[in-house]
Design goal:
α7 (about 115-130) runs parallel beside α9, α16 crosses α17 (about 280-295) and α25 (about 410-425) runs antiparallel to α26. The longest helix is centred in the N-terminal third of the chain and has 17 residues, at about 225-240. The protein contains 38 helices and 17 strands. The chain is α+β, with helices and mostly antiparallel strands. It is a peripheral membrane protein.
Length: about 850
């Protein structure tokens, strides 16, 4: 049923189709059979039909077919408006009516008529109802239409061909010559549509796309739409192979900065600033053009320019500093979107001296923008505070004021997240930040934010000089708030009691008052906390094993599904990595990615027979070939508790060959492996540009610190026709040498973080597995390089933000933690000193001395 729009009501407009009934319209459609044809009446009925269809009303197949059949009689009327409306209705009803092919002859007649009025629209309608069986019969007419002198006819044929690619790619790609001819047409739209069709025809062939782009950039296209499209295709070619020489494409992009069309100029500037490895020289002309747009009288140009400069400021802040004055003028811009982007860009590129001035401008600016823009500003302030930590009082004061102002949940959540980030990275800001959050929870109406802040108080509060001052704020939540908040408050109090012995008696008294709480979960948490605190087991609240919940759930389901005599082994469940310190290897520890890898490997029958259990860790890809070779192979290492699985991803870059029975042969390594224990799974068929995987699996011996395997790709080659894909029945065997692949200690350990490393270190002291040694790292030129290499070599995670060496320091202490395959915790403390070269004292603690010695043996 149609509805009345609120804006229309405010403007005094009334929807003429309000309350329109489908049955009434179908009844009115019988007027199509009347003679003579009443044009105005039929136009109104067709409009009503289209309105119903686009509003989501469902027409039955029978009634749609009857209406469609009646509508075909309207072809007898030469009225242009009626004919165009008939075309639109045919396209809308083509999927719900039967026997739509009945109008083919009428559409063909209009398509080949001398009068160009109908031709373009008739082609579009005809291609909507065309299928594979009728496409070839239309081929000759469509090819003629593509090169037609009339732009509307040519564009109609080109756009229709683009839609027909999904139905008959092999037929449409035979029209390349005609499409190339249309690309030389002086019509702006024909040129644009022809270029788009050429690209989609060749999209699956990377070399053909490169050739197309190289050819078109020399033609100096007259259409601004086509030029913008070509700029985007050029950017794709550069990004697809960033290591190749693309000087001609870079020159083309730079030449487009001088185009007379503002649309082309902006598109070229946007492409240049989005290049991944853009140099300062390449960036300068693009920034200059965007700077000119900042003073444009057109709001859309100002917005586009400042948005692009905002992105540039993240990776190349120095390149944008020349635009500071222009962007400061935009802070008062009447368009609030432009003003918001300007202020956030200034925050990213501003220097320390400008912080106070910018914060004053923002204060007056914030009341005039919506929450959506306020969130953007808050995130920019957080980044600026981390960039200039000594200015944190000014920015913390601003965030505290913003917390007290009006705003929705998302806005307040962004402020709390900003304060949390500042507290985490700037220790001096901890007390001020926690104090502001304590004041906020006294008058906070969002339960989710309350629980977040209470958790933060429990984590950060006990380590402050005066932890007792936070107890009152937390206890108030136990009295005044909902059950979910009370449960979070119990946890927070418990952590204070476990960390601060002087406060423990008082905390126990407060918790006892909650034993009669009305909520079951609150009472259970209180009971658990009291049991642990009164039994001097407060350490249970700290350093909890960070299990991956998805992996734990999967492991428990497997355990319950098959009755077993032995108890459930929690050490076999993979740990979840803390991601507060980002690295280039984040994806390989992502729980969702791990679950996806585990499911994919479990779907391979040969591997499923090994009963591998839960996946412990997957490595990042290792390239075993050059990127430009005919066969591209990269390897992934998947480590389980008892096996290691090598996954080889194979890509065939030759379009005239098909590879079958692709097997990777692995030789070497220090581990003695029985041939019967090795499982080799070949990739049955590797088509052109369609990656396939082969697998090799064998028992894991994690006691060997490092071993290297030589790899060879063994396969059968079959020649094929690049056009049709038809392959020869006979093939011939071939081999291809690959790079060596290493399996080492870093593959056996999953990095985890310990918020309180000293306590975790102390807990392992009595295990008897401590080993220590001194190493001279003569190849390292500075401490930061040594820290990075040690973390990479051992595969452990840096704790307490010890991965960064402060500038000018010649001594550094690195804390590392990880979980060894099988669930054994490994902690390491490295003390590094620099004097001409780096010296390192490495001490490792683990449950066994053999494991700690294994860690030391990794350092060469």
């Amino acid at each position: 049923m149609a509805h009345r729009d609120k804006k229309d009501e405010e403007d005094g407009l009334v929807n003429p189709f309000l309350g329109l009934e489908k049955s009434t319209v179908l009844q009115e459609a019988r007027a199509f059979n009347e003679m003579p044809i009443r044009v105005s009446k039929c136009l109104m009925i067709l409009t009503k039909l289209l309105f119903l269809i686009h509003q989501g009303d469902t027409l039955g197949t029978r009634e749609a077919t009857e209406t469609f059949f009646s509508m075909t009689k309207l072809f007898q009327c030469p009225d242009v408006r009626l004919r165009r409306m008939v075309y639109l209705t045919i396209k809308a009803m083509s999927t719900i009516s039967e026997d739509v092919i009945m109008v083919t002859s009428s559409l063909m007649k209009d398509m080949t008529a001398r009068d160009d009025t109908y031709r373009g629209a008739a082609i579009r309608a005809l291609c909507t109802i065309t299928d594979n069986t009728t496409l070839q019969s239309l081929e000759r007419f469509l090819k003629q239409a593509i090169v037609d002198r009339n732009p509307s006819v040519s564009s109609g044929a080109l756009v229709s061909s683009l839609h027909l690619l999904n139905k008959g790619h092999d037929v449409v790609k035979r029209w390349v010559n005609e499409v190339q001819q249309a690309a030389s047409n002086n019509s702006a739209m024909s040129q644009y549509h022809a270029l788009g069709l050429l690209y989609h025809i060749k999209a699956k062939d990377r070399l053909a796309v490169q050739k197309l782009v190289a050819t078109q950039i020399k033609k100096h296209l007259s259409s601004p739409f086509a030029t913008c499209q070509l700029i985007r295709y050029s950017l794709k070619v550069i990004e697809a192979d960033p290591d190749a020489n693309h000087d001609d494409l870079h020159d083309f992009l730079e030449s487009c900065l001088r185009n007379k069309s503002e649309m082309v100029v902006y598109e070229a500037a946007r492409a240049i600033v989005n290049l991944k490895n853009v140099t300062a020289r390449q960036l300068a002309p693009a920034v200059s053009v965007l700077q000119l747009f900042l003073s444009s009288p057109r709001p859309v140009l100002r917005f586009a320019a400042v948005r692009s400069l905002n992105k540039v400021s993240i990776s190349h802040p120095n390149a944008v500093k020349t635009c500071v004055l222009d962007m400061e003028n935009l802070i008062t811009d009447s368009n609030r979107s432009v003003a918001t982007l300007a202020i956030t860009t200034l925050l990213k590129i501003g220097n320390e001296a400008s912080v106070d001035r910018l914060m004053k401008q923002i204060t007056s600016f914030m009341n005039e923008i919506s929450d959506e823009f306020k969130i953007v500003v808050v995130e920019a302030i957080r980044s600026l505070c981390l960039k200039y930590p000594q200015k944190y009082p000014v920015m913390m004061s601003f965030l505290a004021g913003a917390l007290r102002d009006e705003g929705g949940y998302d806005y307040k959540k962004a402020i709390v997240a900003a304060i949390s980030g500042i507290i985490e990275h700037i220790p001096e800001a901890k007390e001020a930040g926690l104090a502001q959050l304590c004041e906020y929870i006294e008058d906070c109406e969002h339960s989710a934010l309350l629980t977040t802040i209470l958790h933060m108080l429990g984590e950060r509060g006990p380590s402050t000089p005066s932890p007792s001052k936070y107890i009152r704020f937390i206890y108030n939540r136990l009295i005044l708030e909902s059950s979910i908040v009370r449960a979070a408050a119990v946890d927070a109090l418990s952590k204070f009691g476990s960390h601060c012995e002087s406060l423990r008696p008082s905390i126990i008294v407060l918790l006892r008052r909650c034993l009669m709480d009305t909520d079951d979960e609150v009472r259970d948490r209180v009971t658990l906390a009291l049991t642990l605190l009164e039994g001097n087991e407060g350490a249970a609240f700290m350093n909890q094993l960070p299990l991956s919940l998805s992996s734990l759930e999967r492991a428990l389901k497997e355990y319950v599904a098959e009755p077993r005599d032995q108890p459930f082994d929690i050490n076999a469940v993979p740990v979840e990595v803390d991601t507060t310190e980002k690295s280039a290897l984040d994806d390989m520890f992502d729980p969702e990615q791990r679950a996806e890898n585990e499911a994919r490997l479990a779907a391979v029958p040969e591997l499923a027979q090994l009963n591998l259990g839960p996946l412990f860790k997957s490595s990042p890809p290792t390239q075993l070939t050059e990127a430009e070779t005919e066969y591209v192979v990269k390897a992934y290492k998947h480590v389980y508790q008892s096996h290691v699985v090598f996954e080889f991803n194979i890509t065939n870059t030759l379009n005239d060959q098909i590879l079958e029975q692709c097997t990777v042969i692995m030789e070497g390594g220090e581990q003695e492996i029985d041939e019967d224990d090795v499982v080799i799974v070949p990739a049955p068929k590797v088509m052109y540009d369609k990656p396939a995987s082969a697998y090799v699996a064998f028992p894991l011996d994690a006691s060997i610190a490092s071993q290297t395997f030589e790899t060879t790709l063994d396969f059968v080659v079959k020649d094929c026709d690049p056009e049709t894909g038809e392959e020869d029945p006979e093939g011939y065997p071939d081999k291809y040498e690959l790079e060596e692949i290493e399996l080492g200690f870093a593959d056996y350990v999953s990095p985890v973080t310990r918020p309180n490393f000293a306590q975790a270190w102390q807990a392992l002291e009595d295990k008897g597995g401590e080993s220590e040694d001194v190493f001279e790292l003569t190849s390292m030129t500075n401490l930061q390089e040594a820290v990075d290499q040690v973390l990479k070599l051992l595969g452990l995670s840096a704790c307490e933000r010890s991965s960064t060496v402060k500038e000018g320091k010649n001594r550094h202490e690195l804390f590392m933690a990880g979980m060894y395959v099988g669930g054994q915790e490994v902690l390491a403390r490295a003390r590094l000193a620099f004097d001409e070269h780096v010296s390192m004292n490495l001490c490792v603690r683990a449950p066994s001395e053999e494991l700690s010695q294994l860690v030391l043996s990794c350092i060469e």
